[in-house]
Amino acid sequence: MAFHYVGGERDQLFLLPVSMRDWLDEGHLAWFVIDVVERVDLTKFHARYRLGGAGRPPYDPKMMLALLFYAYATGMRSSRRIEAACRTDAAFRVIAGGAAPDHSTLAEFVVVHEAAIKDVFFDVLRLCAVAGLVPVERLALDGTKMAADAALDQNRSAQWIRDEVARVVAGAIATDAAEDAEAGLLGFEQLPVDLATKAGRVARLNAALAQLEAVEAAARAEADEKAARAQQAAAEGRKLNGRKPKGPQARLARAEADHAAAVARAEAKAAARAAKEQAAQARGHKVAGRAPGPGTGVERAAAALEAARAAAQDAPEPEPGAANVTDPDSRMMKVPDGFVQGYNAQAMVNERQVVVARDVTQDANDVGQFTPMLRATEESLARAGVTEPVGVVTGDAGYWSEANATAQGPDRLIATQKDWKQRQAARALGTTTGPPPDGATPLEAMEHRLRTPEGAAAYATRSHTVEPVFANSKENRGFRGFRRRGLEAVRSEWSLMMTVQNLRKLYDHLAGGGAGFAVT
């Protein structure tokens, strides 16, 4: 008895023309992406091209942007893989309409339309707002370290960079001299490999040197500002609060200011005592108590000053800073398992895990990003047509400072210490109610609010608001680093990632809610 199977008839001819509409289900993500791009403002994309004219026409920006959206939404960023998918994957073939853009064309599209891609974020956010996905009663701010397209071992000192520039330029001059002696191919001179591209090695080296000089100048300015504040505090007889400087010379300047402040306080006390004694003597009385001496405060400040002087004398010459010669805009940043050469990517997220504002910074610390992200959120919501005021913004201890706690803007809950320490302190101190006590410092007021049931509940929403957005991008889509180089380039790439995050949230909302896939 013969076996009976259902097999494919690969040589069967179709009696009717094939329609791409039959390749994918009506609710497929690809159709949704096409619908979304139809409602995106492409004016800036079209402005890059000329009307008519000779030569091969460019690919439609609408099709190219839809390809990018779908590729990123499915965890694909390689332009070569996208090109291959346009030939083999039904969804990509539908979006491309049977075209197969070359990988270099896809890569060039991302570069040429860098600014326009950033603005698309607002269009998709507006669609999310129309669908009711942008409530702003509670927002959470956080940052994540994203690897740059550069290696840690490519950080170099300023002197190394200068020597390398001299070496490359000398090599170019020697090559030119050698080629001048004999005719090149077809009479043309060929540049050395190091200088063959527009963004050649010398340009990158000079950019790295400029970054290094800018960072060192900023560090000097910051140190001078701190020293001036310490001197001003010393002149007023008060000790400057805050963290001690790290460098031995900066520590010495701080110790000198602290000692001067201690002496000034002691002298002020002695002058007050003398004035009091003189007034009492005129009345024929005596002042009770002993006259103040130098005091332990002056002694401690003097001992600290001597220790700082000894440390400054024994300290070796400070090591020069370093800049990355592959991506000069990137920075070395601390992560839980060591260091990464990269950037600090920021996102403001609502309770529906929709990103309402995004940015990328070179600063490894989050504390300086709080007020800029508040401004970015205000601008972003305005451009998306969201008029409701922001309720409360939550941030982890990385954003804590008195300046951030008291800055203008919406209400905020910022942890004053790491989460596990915050929970430990809450268990030890117990809960509280009501407003902060009168006269409380910003730190005491924030800790009081975080221990109230309302404050604790609002802050607890962080864990399921912003952190899953980063996990989704890094773990599910594999976006652990950037593929492009330069601050503005990675800002555009991060914006595209967060746009796709919102697009998927909109797709899941409309699909799960039974509202179909029509985008209004």
What does this 3D model show about the protein?
This protein has 520 residues and is α/β, with parallel strands linked by helices. The protein is 52% helix and 9% strand. Strands 1, 4, 5, 6, 7 and 8 form a six-stranded mixed beta sheet that branches. Helix 13 links the parallel strand 7 (392-395) and strand 8 (411-414). The longest helix is centred in the middle third of the chain and has 35 residues, at 201-235. The protein starts with 28 loop residues before the first helix and ends in an 8-residue tail after the last helix.
Give the secondary structure arrangement, pairings included.
Elements: H1 29-38, H2 43-46, H3 61-73, H4 79-88, H5 90-96, H6 103-112, H7 114-130, E1 138-147, E2 155-157, H8 158-180, H9 201-235, H10 248-282, H11 295-314, E3 322-324, E4 331-335, E5 338-350, E6 355-361, H12 370-383, E7 392-395, H13 402-406, E8 411-414, H14 419-429, H15 442-451, H16 453-460, H17 467-476, H18 487-512
Parallel strand pairs: 1-7, 7-8
Antiparallel strand pairs: 1-5, 2-3, 4-5, 5-6
Helix pairs in contact: 1-3, 3-18, 4-5, 4-6, 7-18, 8-9, 9-10, 10-11
